[in-house]
Design a protein that fits this description.
Elements lengths: L2 E3 L4 E4 L21 E2 L13 H19 L9 H6 L3 H9 L3 H8 L4 H24 L10 H6 L3 H9 L3 H7 L17 H6 L4 H16 L21 H5 L2 H13 L3 H8 L8
Antiparallel strand pairs: 1-2, 2-3
Helix pairs in contact: 5-7, 5-10
Length: 275
């Protein structure tokens, strides 16, 4: 088909589906059906400095966001730079202190921070989609793993395993295991008492709210310059209340489900003592 080439060495077929899938922390070519052409990106001696490295990273991850559907303030893995023809950026990152140090300096979220949150988010998306398509009469029952595999939902199956398995996830999101499963079913289980009541629907709504806010931010924007960069923060009560009626409802649910610190742990967010 007809081909177009972007400034960052991206080559894609025009009209290709550029939407993200339900996978997580995977290489970019597994997320969208485009290929990044490997071109000679070797720079002249003396090209790399703090300004050029910052600019190159910002340009790369802005285009990365367009194809992956992830926020442009999330630093890709170093392997993603190399896999898509930009080993020069990867080498420069290593020369200038490493990814974590540069994330703090450039107000980006490092891979180790966002991949856990994104994995939980994609897990909730997958569980909710399964419930809508294949679920039974009770949406609060965790779907049997055998049924998930029989439906061909391999990504969802591995997300469950990656995040601790069905019993841990059932406790985290307050889901019951099927009646014939030996897992936790009663609130007398000690681990269940530690988590308490919760809602998969609310977990997904909250994570989509946080993720959506980050999708609106571009690298270098003032909104990305948090007091403690490199974290994905649980919204404070004041921040939720500024969102109108929906925010008020969400704030009420946060209090219902144990408060801001407890809910933050459930959904992979960093809690702050901000009011």
């Amino acid at each position: 088909g007809e081909v177009e080439k972007g400034d960052a060495g991206i080559t894609t077929e025009i009209g290709a589906d550029r939407s993200a899938t339900n996978g997580t922390d995977i290489l970019l070519e597994e997320v969208a059906p485009q290929r990044w052409q490997h071109v000679n990106t070797r720079k002249k001696y003396g090209y790399w400095n703090d300004f050029t490295l910052r600019s190159e990273i910002y340009e790369f991850i802005t285009r990365y966001m367009e194809f992956s559907g992830r926020p442009a303030i999330w630093m890709p893995r170093l392997a993603d730079f190399d896999a898509h023809g930009r080993s020069d950026i990867q080498n420069a990152i290593n020369r200038f202190g490493g990814a974590n140090a540069l994330c703090k300096k450039y107000c980006l979220v490092p891979f180790q921070e966002w991949q856990y949150f994104e994995s939980l988010y994609q897990l909730c998306v997958g569980l909710k989609a399964f419930q809508k398509t294949y679920g039974g009469d009770d949406p609060d029952v965790f779907p049997p793993l055998a049924e998930i595999k029989e439906c061909g939902l391999v990504d969802l199956y591995y997300l469950i395993q990656r995040n601790g398995g069905k019993k841990i996830i059932a406790r985290r999101f307050d889901l019951l295991l099927p009646a014939d499963d030996p897992g936790p079913k009663r609130p007398t289980d000690a681990a269940e008492r530690q988590w308490g009541p919760f809602s998969l629907d609310f977990a997904l709504e909250l994570m989509e709210h946080v993720r959506g806010k980050m999708l609106d931010v571009r690298p270098g924007d003032p909104a990305a310059r948090l007091p403690t960069p490199g974290k994905i923060w649980m919204p404070s009560e004041q921040e939720l209340l500024r969102e109108g009626e929906r925010g008020k409802r969400m704030a009420g649910l946060v209090r219902k489900y144990g408060g801001y610190e407890s809910v933050a742990r459930r959904v992979g967010l960093t809690h702050s003592s901000r009011p």
